[in-house]
């Protein structure tokens, strides 16, 4: 289905628009940074009060990525129970 068609159907149903922020921090070399304590074991994002945010970061092993999501609890529960989504996720 085309994006415009999906958007039009959404408007016809009166569905409220939700903004979502996506940011890719991939290929920024986070795991190569050395601030005098050797390379980091794990890179993470700070806590934000903002909702509907998705940040992508390269995985430490260079294969895949870590995805950080900030969402309302009920929305996150829906994502976690989505079988199609889970096919692409491995938790660590």
Automatic annotation (TrEMBL):
InterPro entries: CAT-like_dom_sf
Keywords: Acyltransferase, Transferase
Pfam families: Transferase
GO molecular function: acyltransferase activity
PANTHER family (UniProt xref): F21J9.9 (PTHR31623)
Family recorded in the similarity comment: Belongs to the plant acyltransferase family.
Name of this protein: Salutaridinol 7-O-acetyltransferase-like protein
Organism per entry: Carex littledalei
């Amino acid at each position: 289905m085309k994006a415009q068609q999906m958007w039009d159907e959404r408007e016809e149903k009166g569905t409220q628009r939700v903004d979502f922020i996506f940011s890719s921090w991939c290929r920024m070399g986070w795991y190569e940074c050395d601030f005098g304590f050797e390379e980091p074991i794990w890179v993470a994002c700070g806590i934000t009060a903002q909702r509907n945010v998705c940040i992508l970061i390269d995985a430490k092993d260079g294969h895949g990525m870590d995805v950080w999501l900030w969402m309302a609890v009920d929305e996150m529960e829906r994502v976690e129970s989505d079988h199609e989504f889970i096919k692409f996720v491995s938790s660590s």
